[in-house]
Amino acid sequence: MVLVAGLVTLGETTIGVGLVLPGETVLIAAAMAVPDVPAAVLVTGVVAVAAACGDSIGYAIGRRFGPRLRESRIIGRMGRDAWDDAARTLRRRGPLAVLGARFLPVVRTMTPAAAGASGLPLRRFLPAVVVGATVWSAVHVTAGFLLREAAEQFEKAFGIAGWVVLGVVVVVGVVGWRARRRRAEARRAAARETVAALAEERRDSA
């Protein structure tokens, strides 16, 4: 499980694994299987190294292909709007953007390559990556480890019936969240179409 968590974390910022299977989900699941504190520390270290390596590979890809990477198929699949957002934030915040992006799904996937393409110096990129990867890993491993202990206590108190009720609540919550997300995306798409139509009308009138 530690190996899987490391590989997913490594791939998240290089080939976009995080768009299908978020690193937080895998990491928390791996941490829930950890038997004790020393093992949790080991998982934290392995995942932090994998995250830093993945970010560094993404940065190297951005440096190699530069701004034209934006037009590639993989960036098109991930979302060019997200790429543009990452690039704008990098121009304004530099290393702080790299550090903050580690905690934001999708943006995390884009930021290392965008940092390389934008010309952010490696000496400013690497410290932010190391700090971000370490804190991100520690937070989620700790959460998973504590969740495992809480789950054991829950099972003792409520048994199988409690898990069934909890599962139903989680499913309903996920379905509601996805529905709200789809509505928000539809509203944003409609707003973009309206803006584009107004811009077209102005061009025609001019």
Automatic annotation (TrEMBL):
<feature type="domain" description="VTT">
    <location>
        <begin position="21"/>
        <end position="144"/>
    </location>
</feature>
<keyword id="KW-0472">Membrane</keyword>
<dbReference type="InterPro" id="IPR032818">
    <property type="entry name" value="DedA-like"/>
</dbReference>
<keyword id="KW-1133">Transmembrane helix</keyword>
<keyword id="KW-1003">Cell membrane</keyword>
<feature type="transmembrane region" description="Helical">
    <location>
        <begin position="38"/>
        <end position="61"/>
    </location>
</feature>
<comment type="similarity">
    <text>Belongs to the DedA family.</text>
</comment>
<feature type="transmembrane region" description="Helical">
    <location>
        <begin position="158"/>
        <end position="179"/>
    </location>
</feature>
<protein>
    <submittedName>
        <fullName>DedA family protein</fullName>
    </submittedName>
</protein>
<dbReference type="InterPro" id="IPR032816">
    <property type="entry name" value="VTT_dom"/>
</dbReference>
<keyword id="KW-0812">Transmembrane</keyword>
<dbReference type="Pfam" id="PF09335">
    <property type="entry name" value="VTT_dom"/>
</dbReference>
<feature type="transmembrane region" description="Helical">
    <location>
        <begin position="125"/>
        <end position="146"/>
    </location>
</feature>
